[in-house]
Amino acid sequence: MSRTVIINIFFKIKKMPLKFLSILRSIPRLGFLFLWLILALPFQIFITLLPSHHPFRQTIVQLIFKGTCAALGLKIILRGEPLCKSPCLFLSNHISYLDILVLGATLKASFISKEDVKKWPIFGLYAQLQGSIFIKRTKKTLLSQKSVILERLQNGSSLILFPEGTTHTGIHVLPLKSSLLESIEHDILFSHLKIQPLSLTYTRLCGLPLSRNDRLHYSWFGDLSLLPHVYDIISKGPLIIEIIAHVPLTAHKDLNRKTAAAYCHDSISKGIAKTFQAP
Fold first, then answer.
1. How far, in Å, are 31, 153, 178, 184, 245 from residue 259 at the CA level?
2. Would residue 264 count as lying in a domain?
3. Which domain, by its residues, includes 226?
4. Cα–Cα distance for residue pair 132/126, rounded to 1 Å
């Protein structure tokens, strides 16, 4: 092929509508995602045969999460040391449903999620396989839900909580809801339970820093439909997501939920600001 022909092809591609180019870019990734979901199906069936707290179950789920992240073009950069010894309550800011995949691929822990997450395509199934605790934010169910959380922590399981209670742009941290942190005030967990804040930031798209508009694009909130949003993300290109694991707290008799929430809010905020300032 002559140099002139190659140059002509290049300029024709440049003139193509951006939407058409994004479709071309998404085809291989959609194929990879579909193939991975098919390959992971036997493992998902096998997981359902294992007890909910079986250690091998968590390992398989983590592998499925990692494969799905790769299929979606998500690269995870971890800074700091997330605690491996159970039990630990991880508290993270919340940007979109991608947080479930990213944290699930990084941590051997289950989520404390809203009840409606069960209904999400793919992500809801993954959350159930992982042994998530699904909660309803009503006064009638709050007491029983707290007892389930306490029981899981007491049995040595680690949990992940999004204490903001909703998703948003990730540019700053919303006030943390401390009501679900009451389990840290239980004397059974004193000196055993660790509370570790995590800063989650979407940093680079196709190797370039995310603009403010890009951050809004990746955020998932309001009445946005899930599957069209997933397709938009796939068509955008590879995304780098950074996690900072901060210094943990240890539950003790003088540590109340409001103090813990304030410490986590401050740590997460500083971590996000630090990531934004990085070159």
1. 47, 20, 9, 11, 19
2. yes
3. 19-277
4. 9
pLDDT over threshold 60, residue 20: no
Tokens of 192: 């055993």
The per-residue pLDDT for range 101-124, each reduced to its tens digit, is 999 999 989 999 888 888 888 788
In the chain, beta strands by DSSP E: 74-79, 88-92, 110-114, 133-135, 159-161, 194-205, 208-209, 239-245, 249-250
The answer to whether residue 203 sits within a structural domain is: yes
Q: What is the arithmetic mean of pLDDT over 160-167?
A: 89
Rounded CA-CA distance 67/184 in Å is 33
Nearest to 179 by CA among 145, 132, 221: 145
Q: Per the structure block, which two tokens stand in for 68?
A: 């799905």
Is 14 inside any structural domain? no
Distance, in Å, from the CA atom of 225 to the CA atom of 81, rounded to the nearest integer, reads 35
Query: Is pLDDT above 90 for 22?
Result: no
The pTM score is: 0.85
Amino acid in position 237: G
Measured between its terminal Cα atoms, the distance across the chain in Å is 41
Token digits for 80? 């700091």
What CATH number is attached to the domain comprising 28?
3.40.1130
**13 inside domain:** no
Our count of domains for the chain comes to 1
DSSP letter string, 138-162? SHHHHHHHHHHHHHHHHTT--EEE-
Q: Which two tokens stand for residue 163?
A: 């204490």
